[in-house]
Write a structure and sequence with these properties.
alpha/beta, 12 helices, transferase activity
Length: 300
């Protein structure tokens, strides 16, 4: 029988942590899944370790794809090119699933799912068991991504219908940048379909010092064009107005960073962008000040 869900893991030099994800997949109470590993240019022992697991694992299929390093969003693009199951879920290389996560997901989808939904969203927890951010209200059955993003702080575990995700453009890729925020596509999908709520812990997360979650400011500085794409979408999709205005201000800041003189012309909300220029300039100056302070500290 064809597996229903693809669990994919983007990884880059995580041979020392990837085993936690693998061991959690071996413990799943429902093994109706494929594990797809997208190696984003690792130079450690990742491939050798995965080869060994592929040879020894008999409970589920493991697929391994190696690519030139391009960043998390390019790994997501490639994963969805190769996924052909009904559902798809990303589990990072330093995280691991709850032992019954796949069972919970598939039972919830079989009971409530359908073409009217983009997928599902569940909870992440720290390794000590504490929920990341806020859990959902007990009576909440479905919600839009934008409301989840605004009202329930902290990372969540998103499971999307593969055909829905594939029906939208791939994440934009920019030369010399390694990140377009994943929420860029979540906002696009949000315009059409809601997500079913699973108010249970599906994944345990650990934020490593060199992980993307702990380096968001540096990521913003290194990937301004990727973040600009997100700001353009969130100016349209966010609510209420003040969140749209914050996105417009961040759009101005990013445009200054890359010296984009056509930023007003390219903005989907031109009047709002003009009004946001003073705040965007202040944001840019603060960001550059932070950068100089870090540089000065490193030279002491």
């Amino acid at each position: 029988m064809m597996p229903i869900i693809t669990v994919f893991t983007p990884t880059y030099n995580r041979a020392h942590t990837l085993h936690k994800c693998y061991e959690s997949l071996k413990r799943q109470t429902n093994k109706n899944f494929i594990w797809l590993i997208i190696d984003d240019g690792s130079i450690d022992e990742t491939q050798n370790i995965v080869d060994r697991w592929t040879n020894e694992c008999i409970d589920f299929e493991i697929k391994y794809i190696y690519k030139i390093n391009g960043g998390m969003h390019t790994a997501h693009n490639l994963a969805y090119e190769h996924a052909n199951t009904e559902l798809t879920m990303c589990v990072d290389s330093d995280d691991y699933l709850a032992d019954n996560a796949v069972e919970i997901i598939l039972e919830h989808w079989h009971k409530f799912g359908g073409n009217c939904y983009a997928g599902m969203v569940g909870l992440d927890a720290f390794i000590n068991g504490n929920i990341v951010g806020k859990s959902f209200p007990p009576n909440l059955k479905e919600e839009k991504f934008r409301n989840i993003h605004r009202s329930f702080s902290g990372d969540k575990k998103f499971i999307y219908r593969t055909e829905v995700f594939k029906s939208y453009p791939p994440y934009p890729v920019f030369v010399e940048e390694k990140l377009t925020p994943l929420s860029w596509k979540y906002f696009l999908i949000d315009n059409k379909k809601d997500l079913l709520i699973i108010n249970k812990v599906l994944c345990y997360v650990e934020y490593l010092d060199d992980g993307s979650s702990n380096n968001i400011i540096d990521s913003y500085k290194k990937n301004p064009r990727g973040f600009l794409e997100l700001r353009k979408v969130s100016m349209i999709m966010e609510s209420p107005f003040h969140r749209k205005f914050i996105s417009a201000s961040q759009y101005v800041m990013g445009s200054i960073m890359i010296r984009n003189n056509a930023f007003i012309k390219e903005s989907p909300k031109k009047v709002m962008t003009i009004l946001a220029i003073p705040i965007g300039v202040i944001m840019y100056l603060n960001l550059m000040s932070t950068k100089r302070k870090r540089l000065n500290s490193s030279l002491k």
